[in-house]
Design goal:
rod-shaped; 88% helix; single chain; 2 helices; mainly alpha
């Protein structure tokens, strides 16, 4: 039951990252001590880094979801086995 919020936690982290990235980009544009070309190159680099981080976060989220799916599948299988064993004992 403790893992119920794991998926929403990852979503919140991703949302916070995106909001921070956009805020940072806006501040960088307003206070940029560099030329327009240098600023565009800098923002392009940061956008690529952000894209890589977002891809990593998505991969981690998929791993967490797959692990949860495997745990649930295992629990269901064990429940079926226990049910079958109990049913066999009752009929014997």
């Amino acid at each position: 039951m403790a893992d119920e919020g794991a998926g929403s936690g990852a979503g919140n982290v991703l949302l916070a990252f995106l909001v921070g990235a956009l805020s940072g980009a806006a501040v960088a544009l307003l206070y940029a001590p560099r030329s327009g070309r240098e600023t565009r190159e800098y923002l392009g680099e940061k956008a690529r880094e952000g894209r890589a981080r977002a891809a990593d976060a998505a991969a981690k989220s998929r791993d967490v979801l797959n692990q949860g799916r495997e745990t649930i599948t295992t629990a269901i299988d064990r429940g079926r086995e226990a049910y079958q064993q109990a049913r066999t004992r009752e009929n014997a």
